[in-house]
Amino acid sequence: MRHERISIVGLGAMGSALASALLEAGREVTVWNRTPGKAGELVARGAREASSVEEAIGAGGLTVACLLDDASVREALGPALRKPAGGTLVNLTSGSVRQARELAGWLGGYGVRFLAGGIMAVPPTVGTEGSFILYSGARDLFDRVAPVLGPIGRPHWVGEDPGLAALYDMAALSGMYGMGAGADHAVALVHAEGGDVETFKREVLRPWMEQMLPITVAGADVSESVPDEYNPAMQATGLETILSASAEAGVPADLAGHLRSSLWRMQRAVTAG
Ligand code: FVH
């Protein structure tokens, strides 16, 4: 099963990285992209280029879609699905929970077995240690697909509901963008007050964020409760200080939403004793 043929539909930055990692691992890869001219390097390394989606899907084995968004998946695959041809599709295109569930229903109507996915990697880290791919859908299908697609990242099944991979993908991305917003805000503060941004990033921000990452993830909670060891009164004062320091520096408090909701949580905890 490891040698099942794989067709990659979509050769953007991510689709190309997926195809490259699969070729590197010796897989038999067929590629297709809407705009021609993106397959040259992959073909030189042994990939076969299909001239249409139908041809890519018809190459047999497993089809992996990695396109811009849900609409582009439907637009690209739709014409090829007129005949109920069966087959297996793994969708590694980002989308919402609802879109993943609807896609599963739509493809199921054509007899296509469907696994939803979420890529926990960026193109340069595809297939490297630490990269992983979320999958949701039938467990037996995952068990078949996992060894075939292993080279793109550690396969991690999150459940039968096709919406689950999208859910965790979107939520994890929110965490990442939130972290990015925090780092942006930190750098803007240092810049506005005349600090050395590069030194700050290297000597302070990175080691600090690395130290705090596990604590931040462990402490993330939708409930209003704050663990005792967090000392909510101190945290509330600290958060107010960050907000006023930002105002003093004239840095637009893009993070105000995050900070205010944390402040609100701490204040509620203080009030509640
Ligand atoms: N790149 C990243 O860092 C992230 C990491 C996490 C996962 N995302 C998601 O992966 C999907 C693809 O992302 P990408 O980086 O490959 O995106 P692009 O380089 O912009 O390539 C987009 C491809 O989609 C094709 N495409 C767009 N619309 C259509 C359509 N209507 N029909 C057929 N194909 C379409 C596009 O083709 P072309 O413009 O070259 O003709 C590209 O192949 C994405 O969901 C990320 O959220 C990546």
From TrEMBL:
<dbReference type="GO" id="GO:0140673">
    <property type="term" value="P:transcription elongation-coupled chromatin remodeling"/>
</dbReference>
<dbReference type="GO" id="GO:0050661">
    <property type="term" value="F:NADP binding"/>
</dbReference>
<dbReference type="GO" id="GO:0000785">
    <property type="term" value="C:chromatin"/>
</dbReference>
<dbReference type="Pfam" id="PF03446">
    <property type="entry name" value="NAD_binding_2"/>
</dbReference>
<dbReference type="GO" id="GO:0003677">
    <property type="term" value="F:DNA binding"/>
</dbReference>
<dbReference type="InterPro" id="IPR036291">
    <property type="entry name" value="NAD(P)-bd_dom_sf"/>
</dbReference>
<dbReference type="InterPro" id="IPR048666">
    <property type="entry name" value="RedAm-like_C"/>
</dbReference>
<feature type="domain" description="NADPH-dependent reductive aminase-like C-terminal">
    <location>
        <begin position="161"/>
        <end position="268"/>
    </location>
</feature>
<dbReference type="InterPro" id="IPR013328">
    <property type="entry name" value="6PGD_dom2"/>
</dbReference>
<dbReference type="Pfam" id="PF21761">
    <property type="entry name" value="RedAm-like_C"/>
</dbReference>
<dbReference type="GO" id="GO:0031491">
    <property type="term" value="F:nucleosome binding"/>
</dbReference>
<dbReference type="InterPro" id="IPR051265">
    <property type="entry name" value="HIBADH-related_NP60_sf"/>
</dbReference>
<dbReference type="InterPro" id="IPR006115">
    <property type="entry name" value="6PGDH_NADP-bd"/>
</dbReference>
<protein>
    <submittedName>
        <fullName>NAD(P)-dependent oxidoreductase</fullName>
    </submittedName>
</protein>
<feature type="domain" description="6-phosphogluconate dehydrogenase NADP-binding">
    <location>
        <begin position="5"/>
        <end position="154"/>
    </location>
</feature>
